[in-house]
Description:
- The complex is a heterodimer of chains A (about 120) and B (about 110).
- Chain A is mainly β and about 120 residues long.
- Chain A contains no helices and 11 strands.
- In chain A, the strands form 2 sheets. In chain A, strands 2, 4, 5, 6, 9, 10 and 11 form a 7-stranded mixed β-sheet that branches.
- Chain B has about 110 residues and is mainly β.
- In chain B, the strands form 2 sheets. In chain B, strands 1, 3, 4, 7, 8 and 9 form a 6-stranded mixed β-sheet that branches.
- The chains are: A mainly beta (about 120), B mainly beta (about 110).
Amino acid sequence: QMQLVQSGALVKEPGASVRLSCKASGYTLTDYHMHWVRQAPGQGLEWMAGISPTGITFYAPKFQGRVTVTRDTSTNTLYVGVNGLKSDDAAVYFCARESGLLGAPAKNFDYWGQGTLVTVSS
Amino acid sequence: QSAPTQPASVSGSPGQSITISCTGTSSDVGAYKYVSWYQQYPGKAPKLMIFDVTNRPSGVSYRFSGSKSGNTASLTISGLQAEDEADYYCCAYAGRTIHYVFGSGTKVTVL
Lengths: 122, 111
């Protein structure tokens, strides 16, 4: 059964870095594009970044240089790192699978993790 | 690149039909067939409801349908039910620089 299970909620100070995880089960991570989407409290969804089956990463312009997407194929786990946390980085971060198998163009997100709440506070 | 615009709220009575618009630009909504729609309940992850403008994933009710004209995509919910009360977001592919843009979101209320 397809599942994406994300790491637990975190509290970080401004300026700190954070790395969130998303463990896939029921399929092989490298068979699909994977993405990170975040949602600030009471706000809408915001696409952040993605990684292709071949490991090519791509980022929304506002996150380029401050966000890094990686994966560990041995554990079938996706990661996102965010540096220099600011108050407006406080959000629920979701991982999501793009539906096209082996990189076939799909451009939609068919499975989502449960989300990880990141609080930024001193 | 600003988010496609959606009405903040739409409401309807049970059994009625409602339509949610998603107005973008010729660089996103109007540029590709890759417009999708997501339903989100409070505190939950989004769920894919429509992909490629008009297609429904397996398991999604036939009451949900999508369309697009120019730079505006639309989601129609027919035979409105209490369980349809949720937030809805459109998402458009916007090319290899911007990649994806989500709409501003619409809260659907069943009266």
